[in-house]
Automatic annotation (TrEMBL):
Pfam families: Sigma70_r2, Sigma70_r3, Sigma70_r4. This is RNA polymerase sigma factor. Belongs to the sigma-70 factor family. The keyword RNA-binding does not apply. CDD domains: Sigma70_r4. Residues 130-143, 295-321 form the RNA polymerase sigma-70 domain.
Length: 331
């Protein structure tokens, strides 16, 4: 009968139970232990150590160790660091593009990190992917100009170069001069200081005194700062509510109003029904006057009556139409 014996875990933490035969084990040759981990007489060995192909003792009982359990599949951090140092050394000697590309791939997460930090304070229409693209050029430039022999940390140096490349690209796309942007920041800081000091919105005269400029110069500065307040048409009004863009909310003066069109069609239908219910002579007067654009005298010649009689017929037709339209609207 065998007894469960606690042995140290292969990973070094805690213990596990291994079944140990009561009879002593006969050590097998080292070649057989490394190849199949069995006893010389065919009985299986028990796993207990972290050394491949080695024997240990538990309570005086020899226990074998499997090779597959103890072999590390993942490189340690020291190995990765040593590989990067060797790659830097090799790149510094040869300056090959392939080695540079390997360094770019290794340090690429830095670009995403810096682009996310820079993009936090930018407008919503600025795409982070564009910032990452600009940052990649900064990373390549940092790798080409970095000198490892100086003993500096590359990550600190590269983050400054990446951030500078992103900001340079943003400035190149800005139509507002940098001097105007700088004065806009000065005005914002002055407004914050005065607002905190006065506990109210400062007047233009107080703001001009804070900036140490004249009132006329301040108003001229306001005109320059209007260039910095431009809204992108593709910027969302409410990103979390519906997702409609600002361009979709702008009215088109040339577009036909569907509601007005429906109301007009319905009014025309009601008017046609009311005209159809008039007497024949009244219907002729309305048709010739409003649709054929004939004068009352011309209509009188067509009907063979005087102009005054046509005027009476027209007045009677209009009153009857108004009455019928009112009846239809109330119905």
């Amino acid at each position: 009968m065998t007894e469960p014996t606690p042995v140290p875990d292969a990973a070094g933490g805690g213990s596990r139970t291994a079944t140990v035969p009561p009879e002593p084990l006969v050590p097998a040759p080292a070649s057989k232990q490394a190849s199949n981990g069995h006893r010389q007489n065919g009985a299986p060995r028990t796993e207990a150590s972290s050394e491949p192909g080695a024997d240990t003792h538990v309570n005086g009982t020899p226990v074998a160790v499997p090779t597959a359990v103890t072999r590390a599949d993942v490189r340690s951090g020291d190995d990765v660091e040593a590989g990067i140092v060797a790659l830097w050394r090799s790149y510094g000697e040869s300056r090959e593009q392939g080695q540079r590309d390997r360094l770019v791939l290794h340090y690429a997460p830095l670009v995403k990190y810096v682009a996310g930090r820079v993009g936090t304070g930018l407008p919503a229409h600025v795409d982070v992917a564009d910032l990452i693209q600009s940052g990649i050029f900064g990373l390549v430039d940092a790798i080409e100009k970095f000198e490892p022999e100086r003993g500096l940390k590359f990550e600190t140096y590269a983050m400054q170069r990446i951030r500078g490349a992103i900001l340079d690209d943003l400035r190149s796309q800005d139509w507002v001069p940098r001097s105007v942007r700088s004065r806009a920041r000065d005005v914002e800081r002055a407004l914050e200081r005065l607002g905190a000091k006065l506990q109210r919105t400062p007047t233009d005269r107080e703001l001009a005194a804070e900036l140490k400029i004249g009132l006329a110069e301040l108003r001229e500065l306001y005109g320059q700062l209007q260039l910095t307040s431009v809204v992108a048409l593709d910027e969302l009004i409410a990103p979390n509510k519906g997702g409609s863009s600002l361009a979709e909310s702008l009215p088109d003066d040339a577009a036909e109003d569907p509601v007005a069109s429906l109301v007009d069609q319905d009014s025309r239908r009601q008017l046609a029904d009311a005209i159809a219910q008039l007497a024949e002579r009244d219907r002729v007067v309305v048709t010739l006057y409003y649709f054929e654009n004939l004068t009352l005298a011309e209509i009188g010649k067509v009907l063979g009556v005087t102009e005054s009689r046509v005027c009476q017929l027209h007045t009677r037709a209009v009153l009857r139409l108004r009455t019928k339209l009112n009846e239809q609207s109330e119905a």
